[in-house]
Amino acid sequence: MGKLGLTDEEQIEVATRNRAVIFTHDVDFLRMATEKEHPGIIYVHQQKLSIGECVRRLKALVETKSPEEMHNKIIFL
């Protein structure tokens, strides 16, 4: 979306406006997710999974979760 320079708070605002779930390895989003409404956050520890495994798990989430089911949820890959 071309929003790499935004602050974390601005990222959540953009995601909320666009109903876009945030995929991140930034733990700051976990804290913010407890403080404000969000469209959903998928968190993965940067060194826990390979890129291929992240893609497989993200694909499974997309196929099984609706935007409504992701609202205000945090999913740990």
Using DSSP, what is the number of strands?
A: 3
**What composes the largest sheet?**
3 strands, parallel
Series of H and E elements: HEHEHHE
The SS-based structural class is alpha/beta
Characterization of this structure:
The structure is a single chain. The protein has one domain. Helices cover 45% and strands 12% of the residues. The protein is built from four helices and three strands; from the N terminus they run αβαβααβ. A three-stranded parallel β-sheet has the order 1-2-3. The longest helix has 14 residues. The model has no long low-confidence stretch (mean pLDDT 89).
Give me some keywords for this one:
77 residues; globular; 45% helix; alpha/beta; 4 helices; three-stranded parallel β-sheet
Structure summarized in a few sentences:
This protein is of the alpha/beta class and 77 residues long. 45% of the residues lie in helices and 12% in strands. It has a three-stranded parallel β-sheet with strand order 1-2-3.
Topology, element by element:
Elements: H1 8-18, E1 22-24, H2 28-33, E2 41-43, H3 51-64, H4 67-70, E3 74-76
